[in-house]
Every structure is written in C-alpha cells, then in structure tokens.
Amino acid sequence: MAFELSAEHESFRAVVRDFASAEIAPHAERWDRDHHFPVDVVRAMGELGVFGLTAPEEYGGSGGDLTSLCVAIEEIGRVDQSLGITLEAAVGLGINPILTYGDDHQKQRWLPDLVAGRALAGFGLTEPGSGSDAGATSTRAVLDGDEWVIDGSKQFITNSGTEITSCVTVTARTGEGTAQRPEVSTIIVPSGTPGFTVEPAYNKLGWHASDTHPLTFSGARVPADHLLGTRGQGFAQFLATLDDGRIAIAALAVGCIQAMLDASVTYANERTAFGVPIGSKQGVAFQVADIQVMAEAARLLTYKAAALRDAGAPRDAVKKAAAIAKLYATESAVTATRIATQVHGGYGFMEEYPVARFYRDAKILEIGEGTSEIQRMLIARGLGLPVE
C-alpha cells in the first residue's frame, strides 16, 4: 500500500515551492552571513497564508490540517532552514497553544495578527537548568491580587525578540503540586511588559537567520486572565504541544535531506574527475543513493504521523509516530548533510555552497523539541518497556 498526498496538498506544495524559490532562495546565503531576520519576507509568508494553515477561518486562517503545514515547512526548509524553523515555531509553539487552550478573549486578541503573519509569538519552556527535564521548571508565577508576578529565566526561545513579536507564552510554577511534579501553568506575557527582558540574541552554530534569545523575568506583572487554559495543566499542555511540534520538525528535516539530495545530484553530474562526472563513480553514486533512501523514508514517516494527527488518532499513537518520525528524519538530516559535504569535496567546506549552511543548520534538529535520546525513550515506552 502506497501513501500519497492528496492532489490539493501537492498543488499547495507547488505554490509554496514557487514562493520559496523566488523570495527566499536567492537571499538565504546573505541572510545567514549577516545573521539577518527578514521581517519583510515573514510578512510575505503571512500573505501567502502559511501561518494560518491550521487556524479556523474566524481568525483569518484556512482551517487546514497539520499535513498542509508540514508541506509548507518542508518546502521552505528546502531552501532555508532558518525560515523553516521560523514558520514551524510560529505555528506550532506560538499559535497552536493559544488556539488549543485559549479562551475566546485570548483568541480574539492574539490570533488574528499571528495568523496573518503581522506578529509572531514565542513559547518559553526551556530554562538554564531545565531542558529535557521540563518538570524541573524553576520560573515562578505568584498570584498577587488580580495579577501574576513572574520571576525566572528561559533560554533558546525562538521568535521571542523580533520587531513583530507580540507575546511569549511561558511555563511557570504556580504552586507546589507534589514531590513528583510541581504545579506548572502557562501564562501569556505580552512583549514590552515591565520586568520582561529579551536578552541579546545568541551567536549560534546554525539557523543564523532565525531569531533566538534568552529571556529574563524580574517581577513581571500580567493580568490574571493571561493564564492560558486551566491552572496546573501546563505540563500536559506543553507535552501535547511538543507532539505536534515533533512532526513539524521532522518535516523541516525532510526539507533539509531533499536539499542535500538535489545539490548532490547536480554537483555529481557537473563535477568531473579523471575525465568523467564524479557521479559515474560508485563511491559517489552510492552515497547519493543513500540520501535518496533517507529522503523517501523520512518523508513517509513524517506524513504518516501528520495523517494520524489529522485523522484524530489516539494520542499515544500520535506520540509514538511523532517520535519515530522526528528521530529518523533529524538523524538522517545530519547524515545527509555530512554526505553531501563529502560529495562536494573542498567546495562543500566553502560558505558559497549551500551544503555548508545546511551542514551547520542540521545538528540542532536532533536537539530541539526533544533530543534524539528523548525520542528513543518515548518509542521504547510505546513498546511497553519500563524505561526511565
């Protein structure tokens, strides 16, 4: 049995590919070199409708599915991983928590601009002492009258410091809970809130055109009605958010693998050695063939997971499929960039060739939204193993 995307999804893919080829690809190397976040292109992506793919029409979205979002992320990530992650985080971590857990007032306030690409939102989960162990959150929020007072810090937060960032949803301890798990809630913090500081951007190995900052909260006050969803349900909220996000990250990895396949095929046909194209040599051809296998397998795993999510499959089934897709696609992306760099030889080490940029960009795919180790743990648990 073959799995194929619908004609509508493939038609949409062509639209996004045309946009990415015309508006992103010609500038990606310069944005990467200059560490430039292209706000004008992000707004153009909003006009294309990619930020609103999973949002209902009442907020300006198209009421589409996760599969459509994965298609868009794959095609944009195929030319620029930085803008691919900008889209993934904007929807998966910025829009979806508000869309899923927000009340009517919160949705009406934040979603129209986020869906239109006029604004971006971040999701503050990771902390200096809390990464994979998200339950070790130390940021605290205390209810003082009709306001939450937030103190703490977050790190590695995407889309948190752009000129169009409107808010960041943060996880914080709002009570003691139990010895095994503290009470964690999520709270929307508007940009510009006194006591909320966006620290200078990181100097990253890759994703140079993506916006990433540490955040500091020192007595930051927000109204009590900025609590997102039910108090104490923050842990469950971000676990569900990450399930969808892992599928989307897998799609970004698929775009990376496909880019490496395209670049390697082109180079292996054009570059000659000993009077013949290097692609005629088995040592090169077999490596390029391996990238093709990874692209096909990663794409099938990713869109299978997205299809399960879109069909409303049980959460455990989606969680396992998401972990499998994320693990295989991201580790394959790292391998594919290494192979593509080797195929390009010395030129692969030069920044003028996209493979160098993709090589730098790929590694974080194995870390963000759950490390490879976390994915293996989730898969093992899905098999019934008592792994801790």
Automatic annotation (TrEMBL):
A Pfam family this chain is assigned to: Acyl-CoA_dh_N
Domain Acyl-CoA oxidase/dehydrogenase middle: 123-218
Cofactor: FAD
GO MF annotation: an example: acyl-CoA dehydrogenase activity
Domain Acyl-CoA dehydrogenase/oxidase N-terminal: start-end pairs: 6-117
Stretches assigned to the Acyl-CoA dehydrogenase/oxidase C-terminal domain: 232-383
InterPro entries linked: Acyl-CoA_DH_CS (IPR006089), Acyl-CoA_Oxase/DH_mid-dom (IPR006091), Acyl-CoA_Oxase/DH_mid-dom_sf (IPR046373), AcylCo_DH-like_C (IPR036250), AcylCo_DH/oxidase_C (IPR009075), AcylCoA_DH/ox_N (IPR013786), AcylCoA_DH/ox_N_sf (IPR037069), AcylCoA_DH/oxidase_NM_dom_sf (IPR009100)
PANTHER family for the chain: ACYL-COA DEHYDROGENASE, ISOVALERYL-COA DEHYDROGENASE, MITOCHONDRIAL-RELATED
Annotated family: Belongs to the acyl-CoA dehydrogenase family.
The name this protein goes by in its record: Acyl-CoA dehydrogenase
Species of provenance: Phytoactinopolyspora alkaliphila
